[in-house]
Amino acid sequence: MELNNLKRKLATARRGHSLLKDKRDEMMRRFLELIREDRILRKRIDDEMKAVGDGFSAASAVMSPKSMRESLMLPGREGTLSISEQHILNVTVPNFRFDTPVAESGAEGVNYGFAFTSGSLDSAVSQLTAMLPDLIRLAELEKATQLLADEIERTRRRVNALEYIMIPQYEETIRTIVMKLDENERGNTTRLMKVKDMIAEKALSERKKSDIEDAV
User: Which residues contact 163 (CB under 8 A, 6 or more apart)?
Assistant: First the structure.
């Protein structure tokens, strides 16, 4: 009974090991896809941020600090950030969405007049506003890769535990039980052979004795 129970556990462990390996491999594939997209997007954002920084630097060279502060005091765009969830191989990752009012007055992301500001400031503010969707997408990618990396590590530990600990232990225990059962079977066979020989010798002895008595 214990041998059959261990064999069932071993079969279950092997199936679980195979499924977890498939899950780990698929998560790694999706993780690498997200990493590639993250790198491309981060490179683009870094380049755009450098251009925005250059624009602000150029504007600060021709505008006073007070004018800069007054121009950037109020936000040029208002909206609502909503968070939903999506699942990647049973891993829940966030999905961000930024909703803005349909009608917005003025230039894109600019809430001040152009009479007393530098063109470099206007361009930098517009570029920074246009980057918002990419920044939100980058936040999604960063969080998704972090959650996937954690799940991949947990799955890897489970796979290793099954492959190097549980399955070998089950196999070793099964081998031990099988060897013990085989040893018991050989012992029983040996005892049966001895009993058979003893019965045969006894029968032969009785037959000889009977033959002698008949001869007398």
Answer: 17
CATH assignment of 2-167, given 3.40.50.1950, 1.10.287.3240, 2.40.50.140, 1.10.10.10? 1.10.287.3240
pLDDT in tens, the chain (216 residues): 888 999 999 999 999 999 999 999 999 999 999 999 999 999 999 999 999 999 888 888 888 888 777 777 766 667 788 889 988 888 899 898 888 765 444 445 566 656 567 778 878 888 888 888 899 999 999 999 999 999 999 999 999 999 999 999 999 999 999 888 888 888 888 888 888 878 888 777 777 777 676 666
Measured distance CA(201)–CA(35) in Å, rounded: 83
107 contacts 128 by C-beta, under 8 angstroms:
no
E-assigned strand segments in the chain:
80-88, 91-99
Amino acid letter, residue 165: I
Cα(23)–Cα(18) distance, integer angstroms:
9
Q: Tell me the domain boundaries of the chain.
A: 2-167
Full-model pTM: 0.71
Question: 96 phi and psi, to 5 degrees?
Answer: -95, 145
